[in-house]
Design brief:
Structural class: alpha/beta
CATH class of the largest domain: Alpha Beta
Order of helices and strands: HHEEEEHEEEEHEHEHHHHHEEHHHHEHEH
CATH architecture of the largest domain: 3-Layer(aba) Sandwich
Largest sheet: 10 strands, mixed
Number of domains: 2
Distance between the termini: 56 Å
CATH topology of the largest domain: Rossmann fold
Oligomer: single chain
Helix content: 25-40%
Length: 508
């Protein structure tokens, strides 16, 4: 639309008089200048809530922070929501947690409204569709506000955040560019709120874990190091070769296998044979490391006997037939699995949460029509968050829409960056290892859902074991849910307690 409008404007200008042309140009410059120097919008409200047995007075600051270039020109507006407890005598003892989601292209509303904010959305616990409004928004008495301040950040191109002035979205859409922009925001926020000596954590979900690891590297590096106490990796992907299904790369087939096994347990083995989820998953882990990985690495050198033995165990673990596994040469692509697993029963399983099932137009396709664990939750989150920020936080940007999850950043993402050779080589795990070796207090929490086919838990475990991280400062937690484990009510309770324990353990 902008391109067509520009062509029309050029046609009109070509027939206009010179004075009118000069006036239009002056007006355009004035408009651009006013956009650049206009004050950021900010909405401040005060609240009181009872959280974890404490009455907490807190301020909510929802608004824009401008990012500037070296000539002090504003080029981006980052929208964030900060929750800051009031009446704290010594802020240096109170942690701050910077929170974001992933995509790339997602706003932070999922962790904001699903887990950590003072109000949260409650959807059905057992992988059911969210239906139509009104949705259930409740007081979140398990939020972390009694022990920490929280800042929810929407990167450029998500939420209300955008490029302004002479800035463009592409300036911020990339592994390095994204991390550097969020680092600039965090430094500005820390200076404004005088929190340089407070304990500080990063918490990200999905690509947000990639961002958290890279962001930690940017913040910690050099003599201007920021000083972080730790990161919380929720549904993590740090090494993208673990999710790159392609000929010659055996890593994802190994990393996804225990999640296939968990999915089979949930849909077919629950309550049968006395085998628990954890036992079935552990069997898949050990098989993947000790038998499956060597078999795949042998390629065409594998013997018929070994191939048959591996195929039989794969069928037992995943519920797929030996005939199908033979046809795939023992290699199970995740998207094929989502369609194939329930094909005979006429259902597909979800990518973000394989507990969810969907019905496609037909059962003959290779992939599902859409992800049932995506369309089963998205309307509820979008509606609930827009209602909450307008009704309680008094946020008003006029007609500007809030972008829950935009495809534009992801389609234009720079995966190569400054140091990498290409998409498959993106691995931010090694940076975490270096930080842990250079900062004796830096800790990592890995929170994983057993039914997550987007960022599988075993792949994340393998990454953390292979990049020089200090293992005794890593906390592993698991949930009987998927990518957004907080959808499952018992897993919500466990996640909030696990994160609380992690933060409290860092207090000196």
């Amino acid at each position: 639309m902008k391109y067509r409008a520009s062509l029309l404007a050029l046609a009109l200008l070509a027939t206009a008089a010179a004075p009118a042309l000069a006036a239009d140009k002056a007006s355009a410059k004035t408009e651009q200048a006013s956009q650049t120097v206009a004050e950021p919008k900010e909405f401040v409200t005060e609240h009181t809530g009872r959280f974890n047995g404490q009455t907490v007075r807190y301020k909510a600051i929802a608004g824009e922070t401008y990012l500037y270039d070296e000539q002090d020109n504003a080029r981006a507006a980052i929208f964030s929501t900060s929750y800051i407890r009031q009446g704290v005598q010594d802020a240096s003892t109170r942690p701050v947690i910077f929170i974001f989601n992933g995509g790339p292209g997602s706003s932070s509303l999922w962790l904001h409204m699903g887990a950590f904010g003072p109000k949260r959305l409650v959807l059905p616990s057992e992988a059911q569709d969210d239906g139509a409004p009104p949705y259930k928004i409740v007081h979140n008495d398990q939020t972390l506000l009694d022990i920490a301040d929280m800042v929810f950040i929407d990167p450029v191109g998500t939420g209300f955040s955008r490029a302004i002035g002479k800035g463009e979205g592409k300036d911020y859409w990339g592994v390095d560019q994204d991390a550097e922009s969020i680092a600039q925001f965090i430094r500005q926020w820390t200076t404004r709120h005088k929190r340089w000596n407070s304990p500080k954590y990063l918490a990200g979900e999905s690509y947000g874990t990639t961002r958290a690891a890279k962001l930690a590297e940017v913040l910690e590096g050099g003599f201007n190091g920021y000083g972080l106490n730790g990161v919380m990796l929720i549904s993590a992907i740090l090494d993208f070769s673990t999710a790159r299904f392609q000929t010659g790369n055996e890593i994802p087939y190994i990393g996804f296998l225990p999640t296939y096994a968990a999915t089979h347990w949930y849909h077919s083995l629950r309550g049968k044979g006395g085998v628990s989820l954890e036992q079935h998953v552990e069997r898949a882990r050990q098989f993947a490391l000790n038998e499956y990985a060597p078999a795949l690495l042998k390629g065409d050198r594998i013997s018929a006997e070994e191939k048959a033995r591996v195929r039989k165990t794969l069928a037992e673990l995943t519920g797929l037939t030996e005939q199908y596994l033979d046809q795939t040469n023992l290699r199970i692509n995740a998207f094929r699995f989502m369609k194939q697993y329930g094909r005979d029963q006429g259902f597909t399983v979800g990518r973000f949460d394989s507990r969810y099932t969907g019905r496609d137009l037909d059962s003959a396709g290779e992939h599902f029509d859409n992800d049932p664990s995506g369309y089963g939750i998205a309307p509820g989150y979008t509606a609930a968050f827009n209602h909450y920020i307008a009704d309680e936080l008094k946020v008003d940007f006029g007609a500007r829409p809030f972008k829950t999850l935009s495809g534009e950043p992801g389609r234009n993402w720079d995966w190569v960056g400054k140091k990498r050779g290409g998409y498959i080589n993106v691995n931010v795990g090694e940076g975490l290892g270096q930080i842990m070796r250079e900062n004796k207090d830096f800790r990592v929490l890995l929170a994983s859902g057993y039914y997550d086919l987007a960022t599988p838990f075993f792949a994340a475990e393998n990454t953390l074991a292979a990049n020089g991280l200090v293992q005794d400062r890593i906390t592993y937690t698991y949930y009987e849910a998927g990518h957004m484990m907080y959808l499952h009510h018992p897993s919500f309770d466990k996640l909030l307690q696990d994160v609380r324990n992690f933060v409290l353990a860092g207090n000196k």
